[in-house]
Amino acid sequence: GGKGEIKGWSLPDEIEKPLWTLDIPKSEALFKPEVNALLIGEQESDPFLVAGCGDNMIHIFSLQSHKPKQTLKGHTDYVNCLALSPDSRTLYSGSEDGSIRIWDLRSASVVNLIEPHKYQVSGGGPLMSSWHLRSLSKGIEFETPPSETVANTALCHNDLVVCGGNNPYVYVWEMDGKLMSQIPTSASNVFSLAISERNEKTILTAGGASCKINVCSNFKYNDFCLTIQ
Predict the structure, then answer these.
(1) The domain at 32-116 falls in which architecture?
(2) Cβ neighbours of residue 103 under 8 Å, at least 6 residues apart?
(3) Residue ranges of the domains in the chain?
């Protein structure tokens, strides 16, 4: 959110208060940047958290020490979308500078650049679409109902595409572009999505312009909400 903090809870045991809090480093303007997107990865049994922020940077924290590991610089505007490769070695970031940058996390460098349109990749473009990473060419286009909906954030899970935008819903599609479900949320705008798999359960969380985080276990409706105080 806008406080420059990231909080972690233990589900479903402890939902009244967070287990830990991470602080995004202050920018050159001496204020904490907003956190626009989050995801979790793991390399060599070392889990880490990635945050796309309003200082145009990507901040990576160790979830064991809760300390910063890396800061990725290259975008020239807010970073609002993040995704990881299955081996957690490659990071994909979308920004309001109109680009998708593909990062090698071992060298902390950009290895490829996609510019679908010269406007916000994370919202404001003509349509959300899939891209082939080998050819860097466009694949399927996903139309959000109603047509004026703007996609702020999106991620893939198995054969599903999940998206949040400038209305209080999370949309779930099949890979062929067929809309599977439309999930109401507590936020007027959805800015962040995350999926966690544990104990054979898949949990989808959605956050946005609200003090609540929606938690869903079946990609069809909300199970409960977490409230940030």
Answers:
(1) Beta Barrel (2.40)
(2) 58, 72, 90, 91, 92, 93, 109, 110, 111
(3) 32-116, 138-228
